[in-house]
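Researcher: Good morning. I'm working through a list of sequences from a screen, and I'd like to move beyond sequence-only analysis. For each chain I'm collecting a predicted structure so we can compare shapes side by side. This is the next one on the list. No need for commentary yet; just the structure.
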Amino acid sequence: MTLYDDTLLLISRLSTYDKVRLMEHISEALKQELEDDYYQRMPWNEFVERTAGSLADDPVQRWSQGSYEERDPIE
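Model: Good morning. Structure tokens for this chain:
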């Protein structure tokens, strides 16, 4: 038997509820793989166009460095 055949046998033993859960899991995993593949193959300039301004509502802010103890200089 192949792994595929073994998997089908195991799936046939699941309850309807668990089969639905399995389908949802497989659907989400496949969707993520397809999105990842799409973004990996996307031309760089299209990626920049799609992501430009994505942090406009949440800008990066650099806070003060704070004060630290004085240490001996490196020689």
